[in-house]
Amino acid sequence: HSRRFMPFSKRVNHCVNPVAKKLLEIIEEKKTNLCVSADVTTTKELLELAEKVGPEICVLKTHMDIIKDFSGETACMLVGLAMKHNFLLLEDRKFADIGNTVKMQYTSGKFFISSWADLVTVHTISGPGVLQALKEAAFDANKPRGCVIIGELSSAGNLITADYSSASMVLAAEHFDFVSGFVSQNSLSSRPGLIHFTPGVSLGCNGDNLGQQYSDPDHVVTQRGSDVIIVGRGIIMDANPGEAARKYKEAAWAAYEKRLLA
Ligand code: BMP
């Protein structure tokens, strides 16, 4: 059975990675396949945004290294809001170094990511060692953890080729217990247990002046086969982020239901 035409509720049984399973359960329960990208620069803004959009989302994606006043309390409060509103935390760290370095970046330093992030993004550029390293570190953290592989990018002129994307799928296959899915623009796998996340989504814009390229939620879900849309500025720059999130959630969910009927 192909991933695209199977309901989220049935796909739960196909997950090898426990975080992917948990995410599909949240998506089904809250009827939302929206991930908000919390690209703000202070703890206060981050927590306020999480509180406002929390009921509408399945995942909150962070770039913790842009938070000026990050501390243990930032992470702690965010985990509290994730529990309160039932969403997962995806740190968009885009690990890209050799395994040993990535292991330290994941567990240590100012951000100790493995202790609070359910999911992290990772580039496959440095080869299979990076997945092995994250997996070992996650095992040490002794919490359900997963990673999301950057299979494609949304930015104009990016250097990822079709061969690179398919080679990334081969790497993923060696670590299905740790890989929750992919960040991609197109469908890269038909496996129902893997989740496709798609950034570059906006209801109003075609792009920014730094290479970002946008499509609307209906297009990425019905035509490109995305499962979870990732929206940053379309929601966080809105005067009412909670209301904007509801609008994107409804558009993405309607597109998902339409896809099932196709
Ligand atoms: P926005 O919707 O404001 O353009 O934000 C998109 C978010 O998704 C950013 O946080 C960016 O880092 C991330 N992202 C992306 O835009 N394209 C990709 O291919 C991969 C990403 O993680």
TrEMBL record:
Substrate binds at D39, K61, S154, Q212, G232, R233. The keyword Ribosomal protein does not apply. Its EC number is 2.4.2.10, 4.1.1.23. Pathway: Pyrimidine metabolism; UMP biosynthesis via de novo pathway; UMP from orotate: step 2/2; Pyrimidine metabolism; UMP biosynthesis via de novo pathway; UMP from orotate: step 1/2. Coiled coil: none annotated. The active site is at D92 (for ompdecase activity), K94 (for ompdecase activity), D97 (for ompdecase activity). GO terms for biological process: 'de novo' pyrimidine nucleobase biosynthetic process; 'de novo' UMP biosynthetic process. GO terms for molecular function: orotate phosphoribosyltransferase activity; orotidine-5'-phosphate decarboxylase activity. Keywords: Decarboxylase, Glycosyltransferase, Lyase, Multifunctional enzyme, Pyrimidine biosynthesis, Transferase. Residues 33-248 form the Orotidine 5'-phosphate decarboxylase domain. In the C-terminal section; belongs to the OMP decarboxylase family. This is Uridine 5'-monophosphate synthase. The lineage of its organism: Eukaryota, Metazoa, Ecdysozoa, Arthropoda, Crustacea. The chain holds residues 207 to 468 of 473 of the full protein.
